[in-house]
Amino acid sequence: MIKQLIECVPNISEGRDAAKIKAITDVVETVEGVKLLDVDPGKATNRTVITFVGEPNKVIEAAFLLIKKASELIDMSKHSGEHPRFGATDVCPLVPISGISMEETAKYAHQLAKRVGEELQIPVYCYENAATEEKRRNLANCRAGEYEGLKDKLINPEWKPDYGPAAFTDKVKTTGATAISARDFLIAYNVNLNTTSTRRANAIAFDIREAGRIKTDEKGKNILDENGEPIRIPGKLKAVKGIGWFIEEYGIAQISYNLTNISITPMHIAFDESDKAATARGLRVTGSELIGLIPLQAMLDAADFYLTKQERSLGCSESEKIKIAIKSLGLDELKPFNPREKIIEYVLEDANKQKKLIDLTLSSFADETAAESMAPGGGSISAYVGTLGVALGTMVANLSGHKKEWDHRWKEFSDWAIKGQQYKNKLLLLVDEDTNAFNKIIDGFRMPKDTDEQKKLRAEAIEEATKYATQVPFTVMETAYQSMEVMQAMLKDGMQTSLSDSAVGILCAKAAVTGAYFNVKINAKDIKDRAFADDILKRGEAIYQKTIAIEQATIDLVNSKM
Is the CATH code 3.20.20.140 the one for domain 187-351? Predict the structure, then answer.
């Protein structure tokens, strides 16, 4: 079963006092199983975006403790900042990450909201997917009037809080209110302009954001519909909220966006369209700023967008794509952008870091292989040799796409390079997985065998581990064989000056298939389920024979051209 994970992204109304921010974020780390991923303070906004992740009940506990601590340390009656706000913990959204639906997440949001309202006596409004009525879905509606208008809002029957006191008590005077939600992954994203004018920044925000702007007549008066409501001119992009502001810290105006559904409007589209709108108004976008964390795929999509515009190969490495996204979006204009701290998958990966073979240097990998232990062995080496083989094929595809007279063929070679990267990444994972599979067998043999039941469980564990240790090298065989299509295509249609590189890639893939096949055979002989063993051996032999034929055809081709 997939572990349920939710992300919590509370925004507190303090961005200047480092000691207060630390005291508030420290309480998150007191809850075992919750990982604090990011703390992103802003001086001009006087606001800090905090991100943590974990299993639902633990995240709810951490969120409650954070809201409690913030209510003790932040006095809203003395707060000022550029960002709209109405509470010490202004918003506290919950975001489903894995193994949990939005509906379930909304229930957790209400569980948290109820506890905050009842135990802390803080007014709580539930918004987005946790909203109790349609008009409360929009955070801007819930927060309208901000802290300064809260006294009147709380006694308005239409805006009675979902939980907590409907009165501006002495405590509420300092804590303000809190908005709690269940929502999709939201990106807080600021676009930098070469102006100090908030009015001009707002004009661009109105051009772009979904809500657009209110329609006016030639005298600047609002045009109303038959119900007396202002008529709006929609903005260009869906699922985008935005305002303009001046950031004294940097001496520039920014357009501050909330991208509420990045599958509808991704970050790079918001940036690109803002750039067009700024240019049309005589301004220029100079870069951008990401607040909080971002999914890896959003960065890769941005890189692909700009690579496609340049008619360059999309088959470059993940790390290279991250660099392209950072530079294309100007994410490092105002301060350094560290992918290991800003991309959610990288932060989680580093938090749960385990020693991996593929993270070793070349010399360390060789030393580890040569050491007095049985793993890594031939299976891991076969997977790595296959990785090197398809990496060569991918290199030729990328080089071919850069050939001047083949500019019109850039997408053809880009597609091959993308395939090569996919094979390469799969084989890299199998380097460590082969060692993991071997360790499963060892773990099986270490199980107790004192009773008949223990002997039965031990035998079952060893059988399953041996099957897995046969399936992994078979997958190496299959993947390395399939990867040969990249090298074959480059031998036929790629740069002929790189013929030997493509051929070496074929030879590496053949070595990977052969080495992995040896592992399949040696492990399959110990499997008690002979139908399983015979089937995998039969399929392995077929792949092996086809690989030999490709190797010989490659050797013949190279010899005929050299």
Answer: no
